[in-house]
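Need residues for this backbone.
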């Protein structure tokens, strides 16, 4: 047995663990999901990416099809300390908060619909970038927060929050359930509580949609969060009807109490 296949605190190797998990879930192989059949043309591309020494990443992106902007913040459970917490009024505002005053600003951020003259003044001394901005090994700003645990929240307020519970069913949340007006942003937080030594196919998943002019919901974000990882995603700029959906790779089975995830989100005007 390869030493690298040993699990911390036990003698079960990776292959034995996977066989046991499949048996517990009544599966012969990792299941296919109906969401995989949904049309999805990923036209989002990164415009800035910041990698931090505690292992977590913040990425800003632009979607060519929907003309929406986005922020992703992702890290490991218990060790990666969130920075953004959904506290900012716009995606440009969040970008300015996490970058030094001399950092360039991606030109795509200037297309954000919420930008005011005040923002123009804030960036007048910054260069404008037409390419991807990246930097590595950044230190974490001082914060009173510890790393995210299985039951941590992320946003200062939310439209929905469902803490990790084995057997939690897939669910879709609609902006129209919380407001009578089209919303500028969807914000979704998800944390996969499965232990870090579990196989990556045991993901928890969140998907973000907007309604187009024909009245159809179009998926423009879809990500599978591997075990012991959290992610917060903001997507938007244009006022639209929006929705967020959640599911998991274990088909909501309560057979293994370690298989659970927290989901939380809101819609912002």
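Answer:
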């Amino acid at each position: 047995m390869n030493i690298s296949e040993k699990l911390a605190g036990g003698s079960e190797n990776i292959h034995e663990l996977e066989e046991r998990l499949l048996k517990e879930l009544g599966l012969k192989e990792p299941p296919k999901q109906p969401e995989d059949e949904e049309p999805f043309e990923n036209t989002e591309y990164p415009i800035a990416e910041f990698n931090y020494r505690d292992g977590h990443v913040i990425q800003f992106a632009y979607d060519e099809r929907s003309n929406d902007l986005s922020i992703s913040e992702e890290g490991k459970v218990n060790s990666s300390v969130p920075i953004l917490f959904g506290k900012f009024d716009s995606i440009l505002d969040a970008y300015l908060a996490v970058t030094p005053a001399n950092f360039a600003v991606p030109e795509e951020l200037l297309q954000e619909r919420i930008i005011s003259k005040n923002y123009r003044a804030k960036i007048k001394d910054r260069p404008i970038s037409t390419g991807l901005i990246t930097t590595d090994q950044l230190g974490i700003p001082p914060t009173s927060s510890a790393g995210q645990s299985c039951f941590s929240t992320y946003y200062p307020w939310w439209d929905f929050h469902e803490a990790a519970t084995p057997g939690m069913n897939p669910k879709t949340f609609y902006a129209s359930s919380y407001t009578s007006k089209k919303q500028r942003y969807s914000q979704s937080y998800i944390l996969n509580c499965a232990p870090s030594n579990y196989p990556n196919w045991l993901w928890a998943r969140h998907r973000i949609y907007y309604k187009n002019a024909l009245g159809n919901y179009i998926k423009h974000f879809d990500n599978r969060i591997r075990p012991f990882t959290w992610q917060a995603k903001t997507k938007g700029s244009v006022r639209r009807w929006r929705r967020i959906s959640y599911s998991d790779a274990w088909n909501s089975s309560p057979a293994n109490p370690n298989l659970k995830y927290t989901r939380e989100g809101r819609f912002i005007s």
